[in-house]
Amino acid sequence: MIPELGHYALMLALGIALIQSSMPIIGARTRDPLLMSMATPAALAHFAFVAIAFAALAECYVFSDFSVLNVFENSNSQMPLIYRLTSVWGNHEGSMMLWVSILAVFGALVALFGNNLPATLKANALGVQAWIAAAFELFILTTSNPFLRIPNAPFEGRDLNPILQDPGLAFHPPMLYLGYVGFSITFSFAIAALLEGRIDAAWARWVRPWVLGAWMCLTLGIAGGSYWAYYELGWGGFWFWDPVENASLMPWLAGTALLHSALVMEKREALKVWTILLAILAFSLSLIGTFLVRSGVLTSVHAFAVDPRRGVFILAILVIFIGGALALYAWRAPLLKQGGLFAPISREGALVFNNLFLVCACATVVVGTLYPLALQALNGDKISVGPPFFNATFGPLFIPLMIAMPFGPLMGWKRGDLLGAAQRLLVAALLAAVAVAASFAISHGGPVLAPFGIGVAVFVMAGAVTDIVERTMVLRLPFHATLRRARGLPRSAWGTAFAHFGIGATLFGIVAVTAWGSERIAEIKPTQSLEIAGYQVTFDGVFNRAGPNYRDVVGHFTVRRSGRIIGVMAPSRRTFPAREMATTEAALMSRGVSQLYLSLGDANKDGSVPVRLFFKPDVLMIWLGALLMFCGGALSLSDRRLRVGAPRPARAKVKPALQPAE
Questions:
Q1: What does DSSP assign to residue 322?
Q2: Mean pLDDT score, 477-495
Q3: Across residues 249-264, what is the average pLDDT?
Q4: How many Cα atoms sit within 13 Å of 37 on the Cβ side?
Q5: Which of 1, 199, 252, 480 sits a CA distance of 20 to 30 A from 335?
């Protein structure tokens, strides 16, 4: 009964989405307030029915209803409750239900909190949002129905993919989808603005919170997925330039550019056409990522779908929405009124520079990801585009962006003082030079350019601090006056500083672990030891441990430094009988922001075990930086100026004596 209820609710949601996608847009075109007013209740009703469908699927998983094919293929009654629940989106059908559910949530939020929007803009935006929802609901119902029944229900399920049986599954996909789908709102607002033929600073003020929210979630989702892969796959890496990893990076880069472009548009009413294009591209890249993961064109730990019908359907969605949006943009964008002018040396100019390098970096990722697929589709040739290509193209584009980043907040709007900003950044530059010299002195080997990368990271972090110091006039005013200025700073200023500092911290961690990380691979027997970076790791033996739906072979290792025991590491090999698969559970020991990383192989007949031991200097800076970026976004999002409409231009007051006589 529950699966049928969920199926029926999803069908009703599709019907409501079709109504929502047509009536409000017709009302906006004919200026009919009654038709436009249908958008809000339709969006709320759509959310309600999608929520019922998602809750029905979740109940089937929680109570192990193996008469449902999707539950049978991806769950097991012996799994802990947390994994039975997260199994809902640990497969293709369920992940698409999560996608549609988040889409419905965003539509309902616009309906509830968009009362300050012009009626036509709100109606058009919710109509476009409904078209997206209807397309994916039709896709689910026709090719990926999660509620299909099995005639003779089996007693037990096949279990979830062992790699996905991790707390990371509860965090990574939902956050990633909040970012992906969050850009659908900006896409809908962009299409609505093109349909209406009007875009101004108020539009940018309404859109920017949605861009910021999506960017925050995507940042945290990418970082969480990176850390999950780092400790779960046993390879010790945080990023492999996998095509599906790139699928999440592409909209993040476009979204970062959009966030800064919308700021220029809000402040100066400039870059209007460019901002609209970025809003379209950010969500378009999210759709391309969905195609890569769900179509079966890629073989990856992230990929689920293998049915070619699904790939064709998603490709049709891509063509309709991306092609249609770009065609509408080509038609309507030239008619939009151009915005204000500004000098190249200004904060606007710095943000344009930021956009230029972000978009170029995004283009390199797009080309490196899609070119092998396009080549294979055209002539059947298979080529591999891996880390060497991306490191050689992406890095040189990002370094100038990092160097320029601290200058932007110190520049004035419309016309800035580059020399003055450079003088204020003198201390940051000196700290960066000291960091470069110290890196050369401390490091033993490694890439010769690595110390300069550390210097750039320190420059970015010190530049973010300099912005706050300049605004609060630290050491130039009495302490109580500085504190008062700090309290009076807009939260968006603090948010910018936190986010920029976080980017510098992430760069610091990437450079350090890539340049100076060390690795030992060996087969060792009990009582034997390995040494790495001043640590001694002694193998004590293995023992067996039973889990709810798996068996563990756990290694026991004692870690010493300077002859003193500092801890124990217990990596394991985990076997899942239902799937007949094994996973590597790495052991991590944090030492400040650095880590020891130990993974275990299958034991040999002579009692030895193969191990991989890594020392990862400053590796935690990568994810701490991402957390700071998220916190910076949250601070900016909490700024009251993002929760109110953009101020309207003041009308010129006309003296009564100059008014024409009646």
A1: I
A2: 91
A3: 94
A4: 3
A5: 252
Are the C-beta atoms of residues 647 and 640 closer than 8 Å to each other? no
β-partners of residue 576 are 581
User: Going by DSSP bridges, is the β-strand pair 572-576/551-561 parallel, antiparallel, or unpaired?
Assistant: antiparallel
Q: Does residue 38 sit within a domain?
A: yes
Contact 608, 525 (CB under 8 A): yes
Domain count, the chain: 3
Among residues 227, 126, 124, 123, the alpha carbon closest in space to that of 172 is found at: 227
The residue from 135, 161, 187 where one domain ends is: 161
| Residue corresponding to tokens 């707390």 | 167
pLDDT for position 652 = 42
Domain coverage including residue 444: 425-517+620-630
Domain boundary among 161, 178, 195: 161
Residue matched to tokens 């961690």? 509
* 280-308 residue pLDDT tens: 999 999 998 888 876 655 554 444 545 66
Calpha distance 360→503 (Å, rounded): 18
Residue 126 exposure: Cα atoms within 13 Å on the Cβ side: 39
* Strand segments (E) across 449-534: 518-524, 529-532
Q: What is the amino acid identity at position 246? A: N
Q: What pLDDT sits at residue 292?
A: 80
pTM comes to: 0.92
* Domain membership flag for residue 592: yes
Is residue 151 in a domain?
Answer: yes
